[in-house]
Design brief:
Blueprint: H1 4-12, E1 14-26, E2 31-37, E3 40-47, E4 50-54, E5 57-60, E6 65-69, E7 73-79, E8 85-100, E9 103-108, E10 118-121, H2 125-141, H3 144-188, H4 195-202, H5 206-217, H6 221-239, H7 244-250, H8 256-267, H9 271-280
Antiparallel strand pairs: 1-8, 2-7, 3-6, 3-8, 4-5, 4-7, 6-10, 8-9
Length: 281
Amino acid sequence: MINATQLADHLHKSVFSVAFAGNTILPAGTRQAPYVHNIHSIHYIVRGAGYYVMNNVKYALVPGAVMVFVPETTFEWTISDSEDVEIYHIRFDYQMCYKEKQEWLTRSSGTWLAPLRGMITTVRPAEVRRCFDKVFRLWKAYDPISQYRCNLAFRELWLSLIDNMYDAQYSSDADSAIQFTFRYIADHFQSPLTVEQLAKSAGLSTGYYSRQFKRLTGFAPKDYIIRLRVTKAKELLESSGLALTEISKLVGYEDEFYFSRIFKRIAGMTPSSYAKLSRKL
């Protein structure tokens, strides 16, 4: 699979010409029999459900997805019986043209984009849709200035896709780093933990770490730690028979009274009341 940096380098050395740009409705319940698609093209799924099959690989159509085609792609599609599918679709030609060591080089695009064939899931679909719509509107104008702008807008579309690919890759890497801190928190919940310390261990800024942590868990890091400590305290109150002072320390709180306030805020009752209730059950 081509990554964002490789794609940017390739497209930087390429010249594009938009051959067609359209906005089309594929009616509910319709189907296209397999045929060979012989031009570079790119689709944006605006709405609807169904699936594309490209070289025997099946892709469920979802709004916001981008589909990339290269020449010699066997293609078919089936649209859901319940709703139409709306797409933007752009056909284009391109070749590589760049300067290297004071010499201009021109090369065929060949099959370079082939590894990109299939579905690209966008991080910011509204932004990508605006780019498709801009290419479509400029293409319809037909005059030379609009066509020049259309080709520039098409390059902007690819830049938007590169940004989306990079952000998706970065987000995936960041998610893995944050998930590592989940395990660290579970193993060290009794110890003093700060958001700054956890963010540093993930290699992320404190603000970004906190936002992504909440996206993944539904809680800010501090609240997540508190709730984990309360959960552990409940387990000890139910089964250990230890004094509240000892349980407080085991879950990371030196101050028994502060721990009791935290516990009541989360559990809705004091630790003593919880212990009595659990013994009755």
